[in-house]
Amino acid sequence: MDSASLEGGGEKMSDDHKQVDGRARPESVTMGEQKDLSPDAARLIAMGYKPQMKRELSTVQLVGVAFMVTASWLGVTGGFSTGVVIGGSASLVYGLIIVAFFNIFFVTTLSELVSAMPNAGGQYYWVTKLAPGRLARPSAYFTGICNLSGGIIASAGATVLMGHMVLGVAKLAHPGYVIQQWHAYLIGLAFNFSTFIINMNKDHVAKGVSIGMFVNIIVCAAVIIVVPAVSTSHTEASFIFGSVENISGWKSKGMAFLVGLINANYSFGLIDTAVHMAEEITEPEKNIPKALYLTVGIGFVTAWPLAVLLMYCMTDFDAIVNTETGVPLLELFYISLRRSQAGAIVMMSLLIVAWTFALVALHAYQSRICWSFARDNGLPFSHLWSRVHPKLNIPLEALMLCASLSGILSILCVASTTAFNSLAAGVIIFPSLTYTLPAAYSLLPRNKEIKGPFNLGLFGTVSRVMTICFCLFAVVIYSFPYVMPATGSNMNYVSAIIAIILLGSIMDWTFRARRHFTIRESE
């Protein structure tokens, strides 16, 4: 166990990591270790952390991980039914433009902060340095909990979605099959477990990232080219760019449009992925900003054309939305590919493969957040989750914890027919909260000198203000029900998820974390 770990099963800090009033001095490094330090390792030690992860990711692989976790084009396919049903074509087509525009402000904010403070903890670590006085520890703790929750909810949502995709294919191939929600849950668990196993081998993950990025681009191109090319009928431009097909029950089309932005916003969820790989790449202060901007750019270039062309092929709105398969996109494939079962099944199977690669990257993302947060005693039993396996060179226990929590959370799909919508909202709301606090604290006059190589001056300041405004908007708007009137089976459960996580966090803070959650003192 490394010096940042806790001894035994309790919360006593090791000698190299003694805590005074919630603050811990930097971990010690031997003279022999100091001789071999790279500039990246020296910077990390100056922050108060002993390097544990090997910096083996290339910039291309970093972009690949970020692209697959954010998975903007897959987000369009995953939240397709939600956005179209609530706000029509306009909420998806224009929504992607609106959300991508605001994401430029998000990544500018994140890029400036990670350039100044490259640390796998990301947002919660920045808050420890930016927040004033007594606000630093509780603010950082809350940010870390939200960051980890967003990652776990994202993987749970992905497994729920993949389970429904498989059942949709089964229903299309065998019309007599009766879809059961618990079937989707079990299939989702299988995907969860298999991608967890893949993540146990870091070499497999690195290769999977390279292959997965290639597969994602190929499958996206196949859908964009094949589906409209084979389809014998198409919609008019007025439907694609002017339709607000509000069948959600909301009386106001404006409200339906705003709530319907969830699909577009979900497509750019977890945009901070590259930030949490800061200790696995060289020169993170320069390479991570590149990856962040490329994530938004590649995301929009793949997602927007896909959304437009799917709307171009949506010739039978009612049949697609009310399909017996439960997967509107599968029905769209079926109708567009001249009612070919084989064609629709092949296309959906390709999507499932692409989603599997994305889930592999999601496991890597959430486990890194869990591991980095546990280093500072942010979680109960942090001495377990802060370990890095000496042979596998991965945070194995953190990976196991996140996969387990994801599996537990995905059981929500058994209770609700719209479980994915609630989880999609969580993928937006929790990360938004983590962007808000560091952006707000960084605007304080006391922090004006905290700058890295990447700094855009006035535009950076404007970006932080815009980030705060849009994130607060997202937290409020995506907490509303998507369908009216709301019932037990179709309600938006994200408020319940938030309440449970908030209650658990308050209890943990009260009885444990307020004494043991640490802030590292920089040298």
From TrEMBL:
The keyword Cytoplasm does not apply. InterPro entries: AA/rel_permease1 (IPR002293). The chain crosses the membrane at residues 57-76, 82-107, 139-162, 182-201, 213-234, 254-271, 291-312, 342-365, 396-417, 423-444, 456-480, 492-511. Keywords: Membrane, Transmembrane, Transmembrane helix, Transport. One of its GO terms (molecular function) is transmembrane transporter activity. Pfam families: AA_permease_2 (PF13520). Residues 1-35 are annotated as: Disordered. Its main location: membrane. It is a multi-pass membrane protein. The keyword Acetylation does not apply. This is Amino acid transporter. It comes from Fusarium falciforme.
